[in-house]
Request: fold
Amino acid sequence: MHKKFGTLVLTTILSLTINGCVGNNNTTNQSANQNSQINSLNEQNSYLAKPTGNYGVGFQDFHFQDNNRCPDIFYKSKVNESDFSSENINYCREIMVRIYYPSDTPIEVNSPYYYPQILYTEDFFKKIVAYISPQTKLNFTNFELTKSYTENNANFVKSKFPVIIFSPGSQNSVQDYENTIVDLVSHGYVVIGVNSLFLSGYTELPNHHIIEYAGNDDTEFTQRSKDIEYIYNQINYINSKLGNVFDTSKIGMMGHSDGANGIAQVLSTDSLYKVSAAIAMDTDVKPNYESFSIPFMHMLSGTRYWTGKYGAPSGRIDYTPQYIIAKNNYLVGIVPTVDELINPSQHGPFYTTHGSFTNDETLQYLDVYQTMQPMYDALNKIIFDGNNVGPEWGTGNGFKVTNNINTYVRAFFDNYLKNKYKPPFDNTNKCNPITSDTIVVCGSTIFPSKLK
Reply:
C-alpha cells in the first residue's frame, strides 16, 4: 500500500528488505471499454497511458556532479566506490536527470521502458513471492516488452515552453511517473525529472552501473531538497544544451510522496527560487500541509489519511493531518466522496492508493501484476493488522484514475503557467470538481476543519 511502510514493517518482521511500491486493481468487473483499452495496449507492447496532447515527447538524460557535497553522505569507504563515476575521485554527490520535451515526432510507443525500473519491479516482486508463495512462477515477458510513449533525442519543437521540475517518491524513479509526465509534456511543457541517487528507485549512471536505494528518513528530506536546489540552479545550462526551448519565467515544481516533501522543503525555506506554482502528490509531512504563498495544489489518494496514522505524533493511530489551504492553494482528492478521504475508521477497500500516482496504476493490468495480487492481499494483511484493504491500487478504473490525475495537473499548471484560466483555479469562487470521482477544496480554509 505504501512502499515505506512495507519496507519498515517487513524488515522488522521478516528481516527482508522490500524496496518498492507495487500493487493491483481488482479487474473482475472491468467494463467493456476498459477491456478494449487493455487489448489495445497489449497490441502496442505498452500498458502506459497514451498521452492526450498534440506533441510527441522526446527525452535526453543528463548527469550532474555537485562538487559542494564531497564526499556524498552515502559514500562508504571500500564498500560502494563502484556506485560513483570513475572520474569522481572525491565521491561527490551525483544526480541523474531526465528531460522530457515537446517533439514533432508522432505520439506512439518509440522507446523501451526504462530498464532499471523493470529490474527494480522484478526484484521487488521476487522478494514478495519468496516469502508469501515460493512455488509461484512469475512470467515477466510482457512486462519486459513494455514500451514508452517517448523517443530518445527526438527533434525539438522550436518554441518556448514552461518548465516543471519533478521529484519522484522514495524508491521510485522519475520514469515511474511517465503516465503523468508524458501527458503533460504532450500539451506543451518541459519536465526536468530529478533522480536523486540512493533515494530514487534503481537509477542508471552513464557507465550503465545501476544505483540502488540506500536512504532513510534522516537523509531523505535534506538530500532531496539539495538535489532539487542544485538542478534548479542548472536550468539555464540545461536550456542552452536543448536549444533554448525553456520559458524560464514560468517555472513550476511537482513531486510525489517524499519527492513532494523535498519540493515543499525548498519552497518553504528559501524565497530565492522563482517558482510560479507547485503540486504535491499524496504526502502529509510538514511543511507540506502548511500554507504556501505561491499557487499550490495538494493531491491526495484514498489511503492518505488512513496510512497517515503510521506517521502520527505520539503514536496516535487516529491522527488526521490538517492542511492549511491559503488563497490560490487547493486540495484535490482522487476519491468519489470526502468521507472516503478523511474517515479514519475506514480500512478499505480504497478507491485509490498511494501508488495510484505512479505508472503502476495502468501497468497493473499486465499478467505478472495480476499474478501478484493475491501476494499483496496476504502481505497487506500482515502490514495492516489483518485488515483486508482491498486491491493494491484501489478499486477505481486505472485508466480513469490516471486521466483524472492528469486532468487536474494540466488544468492547474495551464492556469498559473500559461494563463489559461479555468475553474476551480481562476478565483471565480467556482470550487467544483472538474472530473467525476474527485473532490476539490479551495482556499482560504483548513481541511479538514476538525481533527478526528
Notes: The first strand starts at residue 56 and ends at 66. Residues 4-32, 310-318 have pLDDT under 50 and may be disordered. The longest helix spans residues 398-417.
